């Protein structure tokens, strides 16, 4: 059976190193069989890969790519906590924040970058509830921030 890492590779992705917190919090926390991640930014190896607001400096397609990168970071902090991504049994909830210029209302399209990646990776177990919210600013000037709630063995 194909592993999650093999599915990631087949889709043209790799898991980054877990990003370090930019404040006084932990990147992920397990409570029972639930794992909650802190909000993850589109960082690649410690550097913000995308910067700006949707509807201004960042296109919807770039926003979707940023959202997918946020998911990769969330998965990397989950793996660091639980040791193996194969223990994930269900993606429960995705919360996405989109730094939005005035009048920008396509937040759901942007957060689809996160949702679609999870569906490709986890199939039926990747189906989740979701929130996509437009905000004025995000940390470090990021265009997107994503947090996950997952069920693990």
Write the layout of secondary structure elements.
Elements: H1 4-10, E1 28-31, E2 34-37, E3 43-44, E4 47-48, H2 60-82, E5 88-99, H3 107-122, E6 129-135, E7 144-152
Helix pairs in contact: 2-3
Question: What is the structure about, briefly put?
Answer:
The protein has 153 residues and is of the alpha+beta class.
Order of helices and strands: HEEEEHEHEE
Q: Helical amount among residues, as a percent range?
A: 25-40%
Number of domains: 1
In CATH, the homologous superfamily goes by the name: RutC-like
Question: What is the distance, rounded to the nearest whole angstrom, between the alpha carbons of the first and last residues?
Answer: 18 Å
CATH architecture: 2-Layer Sandwich
Q: Structural class of the helix and strand makeup?
A: alpha+beta
Cα-atom radius of gyration: 14 Å
In what order do the strands lie side by side in the largest sheet?
A: 1-2-7-5-6
* Number of DSSP strand runs: 7
CATH topology: 60s Ribosomal Protein L30, Chain: A
Number of separate helices? 3
CATH class: Alpha Beta
Low-confidence stretches: none
């Amino acid at each position: 059976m194909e592993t999650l890492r093999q599915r990631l590779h087949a889709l043209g992705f790799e898991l980054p190193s877990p990003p370090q917190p930019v404040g006084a919090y932990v990147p992920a926390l397990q409570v029972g069989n639930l794992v909650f991640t802190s909000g993850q930014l589109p960082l690649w190896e410690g550097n913000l890969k995308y910067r700006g607001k949707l509807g201004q400096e960042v296109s919807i397609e770039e926003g979707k790519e940023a959202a997918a990168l946020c998911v990769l970071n969330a998965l990397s902090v989950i793996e660091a906590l639980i040791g193996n991504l194969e223990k994930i049994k269900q993606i429960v909830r995705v919360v996405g924040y989109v730094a939005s210029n005035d009048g920008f209302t396509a937040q759901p399209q942007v957060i689809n970058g996160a949702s679609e990646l999870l569906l490709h990776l986890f199939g039926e177990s990747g189906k989740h509830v979701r929130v996509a919210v437009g905000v004025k600013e995000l940390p470090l000037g990021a265009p997107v921030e994503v947090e996950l709630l997952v069920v693990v063995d």
